[in-house]
Amino acid sequence: MRKDAYTVDSIIHVTKRGTRGMDIVRDDADRRRFVKSLFFLNDVHSDPHWHESTAETGMFERPAHWPEQEPLVRVLAWTLLSNHFHLLLQEIREGGTAKFMQKLGGSMSMCFNLKYKEKGSIFQSAYHARAVTEDAHIQYLMFYILIKNVLEMYPGGLAKAYLRFDDAWEWTKRYHFSSLPGFISGEHSPIVDMADGLIADMLGQRDSFKEEARELLSAHMSSHGKEFQGLMLESW
């Protein structure tokens, strides 16, 4: 486990990977549960049976008997892949990130094991986290989490996405297990907090983000992100 020291207001890149590279989600039901987890587990209130408690409610509808939500962290960006996920978080209360990740990892392992009759943690370690302080690094991480990771799942992978970028960009809008489509469309997200314009400052305006993403992808396809290797928490 690798974690930097961080304090309230720190922006943190977090990743968590399946043990031995195994998938942590196997179907869209698992993926939807992960999305719900990002909303319902980001709360001081804990319900160990939250999935059952929310089974009859809307996707992001809190049960009436729960207290008002008190977020543990501010979620700035996220992407789920088959065997790991990336989050960009802001610490808003002391220990909030650690508590949120404990709840998220524990819940995912429990639900996975119940469904697939497995045992133990599905993750190779607790989580990896790196605090980010420079604006250029934050902007790169937004690109890395939202663009590079999503485009890796494009048919033919990142190289094909680079060659067919316009088509690949349209494809990303249909990948619903990332916060990217919501940013592109401007649709309100119950998970991502865009209230003060911080995300827009990181990503730029929506109408120019596509071309900025194209340029960043071109630059980092050639460099493999060497300048930012420590921020990615994994090899390119």
Automatic annotation (TrEMBL):
Residues 7-148 form the Transposase IS200-like domain. One of its GO terms (biological process) is DNA transposition. InterPro entries: Transposase_17 (IPR002686), Transposase_17_sf (IPR036515). GO terms for molecular function: DNA binding; transposase activity. It comes from the Bacteria. It holds the Pfam family Y1_Tnp. This is Transposase IS200-like domain-containing protein.
